[in-house]
Amino acid sequence: MTSYIGTPASRVDGRAKVTGAAKYAGEFNTNGLAYGSVVTSSIAKGRIAGIDASEALRVDGVIDVLTHENRPRMASTDGAYKDEVAPEGSPFRPLYDGRIRFSGQPVALVVAEEPEIARFAASLVRVEYDEEAHVTDVYRQRDEAVASAKPGENMFAPPKPRGTAEQAFPGADVRHQGEYYVPIEHHNPMELYASTVMWDGDGKLTVYDKTQGVQNVQRYVCRVFDTKPEDVRVMSPFMGGGFGSGLRPQYQAVLAVLAARALKRSVRLVLTRQQMYGLGYRPAMIQRIALGAKADGTLDAITHEAVTVTSQYEDFYRQETGWSGLLYKCANAKYAHKLARLDLATSCDMRAPSAATGVYALECAMDELAVALKLDPLELRLRCYSDRDQNADRPYSSKRLRNCYRQGAEAFGWDKRSSQPRSMRDGSELVGWGMATGIWDAMQMPIAVRIVLSANGHAEVSCATSDIGTGTYTIMAQVAADMLGLPLDSVSIRLGDSTLPQSPVEGGSWIAASVSNGIATASRAVRTELLRLAKQMPNSPLADAAPDEVALADGKLVSRRDVSRAVSIVDAMRHGAVDRIEQEKSTSFPNDGSHAHNTHSAIFAEVKVDEQLGVIRVTRVVNAVAAGRILNTKTASSQIMGGVVWGIGMALHEETLIDHNLGCIMNPNIAEYHVPVNADVHDIKVIFVDEPDDTINPLGIKGVGEIGIVGVAAAIANAIYHATGKRVRDLPITLDKLQ
Ligand code: MOS
To answer: Does the predicted TM-score (pTM) go above 0.70?
Structure first.
């Protein structure tokens, strides 16, 4: 019955994107648009003693300067500022009061007739501070770090320990202990954080916002400004990269709404690249891992401790440590997670939050253990293979990680690896081969989908989800076309609009599974309605067909038992005198907790290191992924490829540097915050292993948005050790660390 699912269909929004027809939050226009520019704090902690905006206000074309002193009323309770993804604590409120919580915090908003005027005038706003001592260094704060949550207390708390890891470790035949560091990293999406707020009159607003969750922002804005839900519509039809940076409402949306309401006028606010570093980031973390093994390479003890960074006002944390005892078979496992509170903005989710980092530490530690055991690193993984989720003591709905190892190793040529470090060469370059395992959750969330089928055979499918660039428009169209038996171009998709049927934020890799099964549910309702109409036709060939006995294919309702019994959609609707069938259905995913839901991967990396200069090139990466049913092999491969590129950045380039004396970020731009460029990216091969799963959800979908990055930095770090004999545990692995 499927003809589009599983194919490499090109993006249905591709033409709109490459021709510029696709509009992004900062591109929507209207008459009388005013432009904002943000003034940010130059200190990390203290109070605003005074703001002098007189010079800025004298500039021709400046309309107003809003500060905490003159702004219109905003909600005063923490609850009003708690969004769908907010961690525990007291959320940041822009322009709320005179307290400074981090460097780069917005302290004033200049609004002018032109963006250049606003930006110039913002440079003239004088802010006086009463400064207080700040701490921004995770190493300085590690002894003060506090437990994030009790084991097992919530989904982000470390899992409950099992066995007696601390007692088992000293007696193990072979032991490895290491401390691994990941710095603060920023998302750096191509599109700037932007909001255009249309003043529709009578206090009604349409907010074009760069967000991964239009309904999350809509609810937040309504609470913060105490407005009626029907008066605020949030739209985000396209996004130039999210990666987690748009899961929580970004402060420019609040400021743009604040200004629009104050001025009763449409307002656009686009942050500068520098200002984007004043929002969330991947927390810096110090991780300690201890692994104890028997001489045969089976594990006896795992302890994994992490200290991660958060702000002084919210406790953001994810479960870095739990992956360790999940991924490999081991009777004794213990975890600890602590939070270092720093005078920075709250850290946040960034692609595969917790796994990109936690699995980095684990997979480097496993490589070190393999060296100590004199075992091939892949062989060690196979000896420690676990068919069960030991943290929760349950089977997986599916786990084809062995196939990832096998197919990945074969494609890479792993069996030709010589085990000794520094033993492989290519001219003046040392060659290193490293590998790692990846794992991510396969989550699914309640969602609603509406389908409107017209008598001309066209279907419109709508849901308030976003497409953060992952290809959601395309996979939605593919699934709907198959479920409704229509050609792909007879399906149109509406998303990114808060007035559409309910959706969670697009994150966690859960939208593909959630919305696809949601489309299947709504399609079933459409099919049932069509059958009702078809049965009413004289001499209907489907007169005695039950709803589950029919399918939609090639524009027809067809009996599954006898394909010669069919009624065309158009005929059924015409005969029933209906010109449209509209069905909106909610789908939830009952989870009795009996199975673990995860995606897995095996990454094999080749590096070449110039022996004299230490220059590292990642020349080849194979990423073999088991992620259930792959809806679109082209967009899914792109997700994995992007994850690999980001893994190269994590391993070699990315680091947000803080001047701890000033408490400010020193490299808030993509000239000095290094990301991989074309010259850094060579051969990447993506393999999807076949992984049927009829337990997780009816369509067997797991999602691929995040698994692609997990394990990549470790595979590269391990390859660098193999090339050079030098183990670097602190990311990024820059030239100087190899000397
Ligand atoms: Mo993802 S870090 O949940 O956008």
So the answer is: yes
